Amino acid sequence: MNFGRLVLQPAPSIYELALMAATELGSVDAEKAAEDVVSRFSDSREMLEEYYHIKIGDTGTIESLPMVIRDYSPDYDKLPLFLYKAATSVNWGDEQGFFKTFTSELASFYALESPLPDDPQNAKDEFRLVVEHRIMPSFKGSAFWAPGSILMENSLVQLVNLPDLYRIFERC
Prior knowledge:
Elements: E1 5-7, H1 14-24, H2 30-43, H3 45-52, E2 55-56, E3 62-66, H4 79-89, H5 95-110, H6 121-139, H7 148-152, H8 162-171
Antiparallel strand pairs: 1-3, 2-3
Helix pairs in contact: 1-2, 1-4, 2-4, 4-5
């Protein structure tokens, strides 16, 4: 399902974001690393826009991101790390490897972080509301098709199925 894009206004500089991430990660030459990130995204701008709705501006800005779930925005504080890791950890040389690794980095960026136990109650309430009203409704119907590997890795366990529930309630 395609919901379009999240437009970033004003469009942040990829260089500045990558420099923040490189500095935080302790890169020896943070400026060079940031330039490499800008170069990687600029060189791949057409592909990123076509497949992911990630629009890279001519001046090295990131103008849009994909809207993965309707009415849900990622934590933009994670954008510098996403850009840095996407440029340095993704397999850009192999098509299948690219899609797998880039999508994995994008998923990490969009992942909702659960609040810590000592976070204020309003953060916990906000988390619950986002999960309940944004994320869970996206799983209904055909919007979410879990890969078979989720069941094989025991990441997701089927508790009941509808025909068995009907049989149980027919007896009542």
